[in-house]
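Q: How would the C-alpha cells look for this protein?
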Amino acid sequence: MPSTVYQGAGPRIAYERRIAGLTQVDLARAAGVALGTIRKVERGERGVSDAVLTALADALDTDPSRLLPDRERPDDRVHEAMPGLSAVLAAYESPEDGPCRELPALRTAVASVVAYRLSAQYARIGRTVPGLLAELCRALRAAAPHDQPVMARLLADACRAADAVAFKYGAKDLSARLIDLMRWAAPQAHNPLVDATVAYVRTEVHFGAQTHAVGLRALEQALDRAPRHDAPEALAARGALHMRAAVIAGRAGNGDAAALHLDAARALGDRVREDVYGGTAFGPDSVRIHEVSVAVSLGDDYLDRALRLAREWKPPWSLPAERRSGFYIELGRTQLWAGRPDAAFESLKVARRIAPQHAREHQWVREDAATLRRLKRADAESLTSFAEWCHAGASA
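A: Here is the predicted structure in C-alpha cell form.
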C-alpha cells in the first residue's frame, strides 16, 4: 500500500521546530531526514509522507497529529493497527516464536506506550503496540518463574494502552478482547494492584453497553477485594476505583451512591500526592475532575455545582493531557446544557489544544459540536471548521 502524503504540514513543522529550539539542520540530523526535504516541506513545495512525518514527530517528541493541518487524518494509521492487534489476540496463549528483548528493555518500551496513553498520543500507540504485545506474550511464556509476575504486569499495562486506542476509535469488540487479555494476565502478576487496574478498565464494557448499575456493582466488589494497607499505591488504587464508581453511579442516576464514592475518593486523595499509580492518575486534582463528570451525568440541579467548581479551579498542567482534555470536554457539555454555547465552544477548543486525538475521537465532542452548529447556524467559519474536524455529523 503506498504511503499517504499529507499536504500543508510545513508551517506546523516549522512552528514545532522553533518551539523545540532546533534549526533545520538540527531537525534533519535528529530525524534522519534530508535537509533539502525539510526545507521544501517547510516552504510548502512538497508534501510529507507517513514515514517522514513519523520521523519528524519522533525527533520533536510530539505526536504526528500536531504537525498536520486540522483537516488531515493521521488517525488512519490507528485503524491500520487494528488487524495487528486482532492477530495478537488470536494467539496470545500460544504465540509464534520470535525475538524477545531483555526485561529492562521491555520495561522501557511499556513505559513509553503508557506515557503515550496518558498524553493521548494514539497514533504512536497504534504504531508501536501490536508488535510489543506479541513480544510480551512470547516473553511471558518463556520467562523464568521469578520473572513471570513482572512480565504479566507489563503485558497488562501494554494491553491497557492498546485498549485506549481500540475503545476511543470505536472498536468495542476489540476493546473487550483486550480487556479479556488483561484479565488473563492479571492472576499471573500475583499483585492485587493489577487486579484493581483491570477492574477499573473493565468498566468500559459497562459504559459501552450502558449497564451502569451492573458496572457499579462490579466496582464495589473490586473495592471489597482491593488492598487495605496505607502504601500510596494501595490508597491510589482504591481512590481510583471510588472515582470510577462515582462516575458510573452518576450514569446510573444514583446520586446517593455517586456522592458516597466521591466522598471516599476525596478522603483518599487527601492522603496521597497527585501522581500516576498503576497507569491511573489519582489525587486531589483528579477527584475534582471527576466531580464535574458526575455532575454532568446527574444533570439538572448538579450543573451549577460543576460550573462553580470550574470557575474556582482549573486542572494544572502537571496532570496527564488525556485527563485535562476530558475535564474541558465535560465542562463544555455542562456549559451547553446550562445555555452558554459560546463558553461551551471555547471549552471544546481548549480540549482540542490539550489533546487533539482525544478530543477528535470523543463522542461527546462530536455530539456537542453538532448541537452548537445547529444552534448557531449563521455563526463564524471557526465553528463549522471545528465540526468538520471532529466529524461531528458522523455521530450526531
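The chain is about 70% helix and 5% strand.

Residues 191-313 form one domain.

Upvote if useful.
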